[in-house]
Give the backbone structure.
Amino acid sequence: MKRKLIGLLLCVAMTATMLSGCGSKGDAPADAPAADAPAEAPAESSDDAEADADAPAASGDVITIGFAQVGHESDWRTASTKSCQDVFSAENGYDLQFVDCDNDSAVQLEAVRGFIEQDVDYIIIDPIVSTGWDTVLTECEDAGIPVIIIDRTIEDSDKYVSWVGSNFKTEGLAAGEWLKAYAAEKGITEINALVIEGSTGASATIGRTEGFKEIADREGWTIVDSQSGDFTQDGGAEVMESYCKSYEGKFNVVVCQNDNEAFGAMDAMKQAGVSYGVNGDVILISFDACTAGLEFVKSGDINADFECNPLAAPFVEEVIKTLASGGTPEKEVYMEEHWFVNEDIISSIEVNGETQNLTVVTDDIIAAQY
Ligand code: AHR
C-alpha cells in the first residue's frame, strides 16, 4: 500500500473526527448506555462487498500490520492475541508483526517505534497504561501510519483513527448493581468487600475500580482493601493470601478484576479455609468471563462474571477496510458484552439507565465462549 495514500486517508479521518467533535476516549462517556450500543459482528453487506473489491487484502497487496500487545498475563489476553492472529493471517493477505510487550510500557513504546522504522501499513496498540502516548502517536501521524487502539483506552492523546474495546466503568457499575440486587435477594445487609485490582495504570483497572466504588459509596458498603494482583493468577493468589491473614472473618465479598486473579484467589481462600461462591461465606465476583471463568460460575465457585469481550480483530479489519476505501471509520466501537451468573434469581439489572439481562451459565454457553 502506498504510504502517501495512507497518510492522506489518515489526515482525512482525523480531520473528520475533529470536525465531528469526537475527542479522546473516556471509560464512561456521560451518555454511555449499559452496553454502549455495542457493535454487531461485522457482516458482509452488498456495499461491503463492493468495498472489499478495493480493500487492501483483496487487492493482492500484502498489508503489513504491527501489533503491540500488552503481554500474555491472562486467558483473556490469549484470546485477544488469537483473534488478531486469526484475522490478520497470511492466508487473509496480511503480514502481522506481533510484539508481546510483557506488561512493560517501555517495551511497548519501543515496539511502536520499531513498526514506524519498518514502515508498516497500520499499527494496532493495546495500551498497557492509559497515559504517556501523545509523543509516539505524533510520530506515527508524522510517518503517515494509521493507528488503531484496541481494548484499553488512551487518555492523553486522540491521534489514532479508531478505538475498539469495552466500557470498563460500565463493567464495574454492573458488578456493583448486581451485588446490590443479590444482597437484597439473600437478605445480606452489610457488605465488606475486598478488591483485587488489575495492573496499575491500565484503563481496565481504573474503570472497573471507579464503577464498583461508585455503587459501594452510594450503598454505604465498606471496601476493606483494594490492591493490585496485576491481572495474573499468581498475583490474585498472593494478594488473597495476605488478605486472608490480615482480614480474617472481616469480609464477605471478594471482587477480582479478572478471571485469572479469581482462580488465584480461590486457591488462596481454599488454603486459608475460607468458603466462597454460592454455597460459601464469601461472594466471589469476577470479570472477563473466559471459558474457565464460566466453568467456575457454572460450578458455583464464582457467583457472577462480567464479560470483557476480547474478539476485537474483526472490527479492526472493518476499520482498515473503511480507511482503505477512503471512508472515515467510527472513532469508538464498543464490544458487545454479557453478564453471567450461577443462580436464576435476578433476571436483569439496570446500569447507566439501561436494563440488561443476566445470563445463567449452561454447558452450551461455556462451549460457545472463547
Ligand atoms: O484489558 C483487558 C484486561 O486485561 C482483561 O480483563 C484482563 O484479563 C487482561 O489481562
